Structure formats: C-alpha cells, structure tokens
Amino acid sequence: MIAGDRRLSALAASGGGLLALTAIGISELEADAIGRFVLVALAQGAVYGLAAWLASRGGLSRGALVMILAIAAAMRLAVLAAPPSLSTDLYRYIWDGRVQSAGINPYRYIPADRHLEPLRDDAIFPNINRSTYAPTIYPPVAEMIFLAVTRLGEGVFVMKAAMVAFEIVAVAALLRLLALSALPAERILLYVWHPLPIWEFAGSGHVDAAVIAFIALALWACRRGKPWGAGIALGCAALVKFFPAVIFPALYRRWDWRMPAAFAAVLLGAYLPYLGAGSAVFGFLSGYAHEEGFGGAGSGFYLWSLAEAFLRPGRFGSGLAYVAVAAALMAALAVAVLRHANGADRGIGGATLLAAAFTFLLSPHYPWYFTWLLTFCCFAPSLSLLYLTNASVLLYLAPVGSLLVADTRRLLVESAIYLPFAALALLDLRRLRRPAAAGGSPA
Q1: Are 8 and 68 in contact (CB under 8 A)?
Q2: C-alpha–C-alpha distance, residues 80 and 348, integer Å
Q3: How far is the CA of 306 from the CAs of 332, 406, 407, 432, in angstroms?
Q4: How far is CA 342 from CA 235, 330, 337, in A?
Q5: Whole-number pLDDT of residue 58
Q6: CA distance 90 to 78
C-alpha cells in the first residue's frame, strides 16, 4: 500500500475505536459511573489525537472526507438516542421556550413562581436546575432559539437534535472556510471527531452548538470580505453566550464601520422584544457569577486560587484585583490583534489567541464552555488547545453545586487541565513566531 492508503486505514481504525468507546461511554453514563465515563472520554481523546495527526497532514483520498463525516454522524446518532446524563441545562431551554410560547417574558419569573404554575408538567419542570431562585440567564438570541425549537416539539430529543443541526451548519461553514484558506478538507476531523461536542451537544444538548455555528459563519463572512455578515453572525453568537464578543477585535477591520454597526444592531434588536422585564432582562447573570466564585474572593478563577494556595491568603486583596489584571491583559491582546487584523487570514489567528486567552484567564468550571475553541483548531492545529479541550472533561470530577467549593480536589483537577495547557501554549507560540522571524506569515 502507498502511504496515503496506510494513513486512511489507520484513520478508519481510529474511527472504529472512537465508535466503540462512544458505546462504552453511553453505558457508563447509564450506570451513573461518572468516574469511569471520564476515563472513557480521556481514552477517546487519545484516539482522537492520533486521528487528528493523521488528518491534519492532508493528502488523503477523496473518500476520506466522506468516511470522516459518516463516523462523526454515527457517533452523534448513538449519543442522541441516549438520555442526557451530564447536565440538566436543556430542561431550562425547553421551559424557557414553553414560557415564551405562552406569551410570557422569560426574564420576568423564576420557574417555581406561581404565575407559571399552569405550565408545569412531570417531564420538564422537575428537572430544571435552580428553579426555586434563579430566573433564566440566557441572552435573547438563545431565548429565540429555545422558542423556535420548542415549537417543533417540547422534548429532550428535539432540543438535542436541534443542537446537532447547528453543528451541521457549523461544519458546512468550516468546510467552506477550509477551502478558502487552501487547507485540506479532512481537517474538519479536528472538530467532528472531538469527543467534547459529541457528549455536550448530541448528549447534553448545550446551546453552545449555536455559538460555534455563528462563530463559524462570522469567520467565513470575514474571510469573504463581508463585514455586515461578520457583524450579524458575531452579534448572534454573543447573544447566545456573552463570551464570543471577545473575538470582536480579530474580525474588525480598521476604519470600517459596517461590522461594528451590524454587531450593535443585532444587540439592540434582539433585546428589544424582552425589554418589558426592565433591569431583569440580564437574568441570573450576576447571581451566576457569585455562585461560580467570579466575584468577591475570586475563588472561581484558577490562577487566583493557585496563587492563594501557595502565597499568603488575601495578600493581593480580593478577586477584583485579578479581574482588573485579566481585563488589562485581554485589552493588551485586543490592541495587538487590532494592529495585525487586516490580513486575509489574520482574523482566525487573532480570534484563536483571544478565545484561548479569555478561556484560560476565566477558567470555566464546565466542559461545554471549552467547545467553542474547537472552531479554530481546524485552521491552526494547536497541541495546547487540543489538550485543553480534551482534558476539560476532568471537570466532571469536581462538580459545582449551588456554590463553588474551592477545595484541594478542585485545585488538583484544574491544575491537571491548565498547567500542561500553559506549557504547551508557550511551545505553540514559540513555534508560530519562527516563520514570522524568518519572513513568513504566522499561521
């Protein structure tokens, strides 16, 4: 066999291994064996890593892409049929859609409020997290998605299937973007075979799938020189989950007002139907930040917790000091990206840098908050990002209840995620600087 055929055979074997591990993972979740599930997911990550190396080199036959997409679809179909076990967030999605269909502003009442009593049932309502004290936290575009999906059906399967549909949109946009960037189409494997979106989207139905779809469309529009489209798509992404707004500087082209105008128009237009809730239109955002330890003592930030563990507690003041430093670092990166954002492919590189830095500084407590990083991996395969996204499943070993507990166990789990990532990121940055120093362009 020629080298390409051997690689294709190895790729097919890797896909078969991922399918087998997916089936094992489903059985472990059904047995409520979270620890064993995490081991299975990490094993998937190792097999995925081999497959990513094989695919990122290019030069495979035309049938490779078909095989890659077929195996990706098979893994999602298997998980789609299983009940959600890792998160109950999609029950809130369905509830918010139901509330809106009744003509009620979803930001106005908590689920347990007596005004919503006629909407309760035995399948969705009992499974809503924070139902007795928290209004919805989701921004307007997410709420519009919940309303649209629940008009097709108010069931778990329908919501999960809708998130897989958003993945299809994302994959289509990423394939077009790969073609525009003259990169091998089989690099799409770096997204579609990654274990994280399989479990978080097909498995748990997280709305972050819509974030990825909108970011992919924004990158595609930016690459095509369509600032209106880039602004609209990024605005939609930011109003599904707020954090995609941090990549704005990478998509903005200096002195071009169209992209920011479109972005602002989406923000204003999407909030307009919900303004009847007044200041409550931002929902549980501040309460959520408190629960996650992102205010006050700052115990929710990994780097701050690490400093507190090895230095004198309280030596540097409250967690607000960390927020200020982190904001200054992100601002400096944004300025650096803006200075180099006019090249054809610079948008993706700058967005990758901003997204990775923000995620590292924030140190989220749930694996699905890492899925958006996979949008960028197809274009500049990064060992650090691939490690971070695969290792994030370890967070299931240190779950967050109604309030973050910053204990030794959590610190060890997060250290296993972030310290190797930081070391690998330094190596990635060193590798990327070499072509620039030699007169080439960075990836």
Answers
A1: no
A2: 31
A3: 23, 10, 11, 28
A4: 20, 19, 9
A5: 73
A6: 18
Cα–Cα separations (whole angstroms), residue 88 to 40, 92, 216, 434? 21, 7, 26, 45
Number of domains in the chain: 1
Under DSSP, the state recorded for 152 is: T
What whole-number distance in Å separates Cα of residue 395 and Cα of residue 47?
20
Instruction: Tell me the C-alpha to C-alpha distance, in Å, between residue 156 and each of 95, 96, 137.
Output: 11, 13, 20
Using alpha carbons, select from 80, 58, 49 the residue that is nearest to residue 193: 49
Distances, alpha carbon 361 to alpha carbons 157, 300, 324, 341, 423, in Å: 34, 11, 11, 22, 15
Range of the domain at 236: 3-437
Task: Say if 250 falls within a structural domain.
Answer: yes
- The 10s digit of each residue's pLDDT in 125-176 is 999 999 999 999 999 999 999 999 999 999 999 999 999 999 999 999 999 9
Q: CA separation (Å) from 185 to 61, 64, 192?
A: 11, 9, 12
Longest Cα–Cα distance in the chain: 69
- What tokens does 33 get? 């064996």
The answer to whether residue 415 sits within a structural domain is yes
- What the block records as the tokens of 257 is 């007002």
Cα(222)–Cα(217) distance, integer angstroms: 8
The alpha carbon torsion through 386, 388, 394, 396 (nearest 10 deg) reads: -100
**pTM as predicted:** 0.93
Count of residues in the chain: 443
Residue pointed to by tokens 């080199």: 57
Q: Phi and psi (nearest 5°) for 153?
A: 165, 140
What residue has token string 């078909």? 66
**Domain annotation covers residue 442:** no
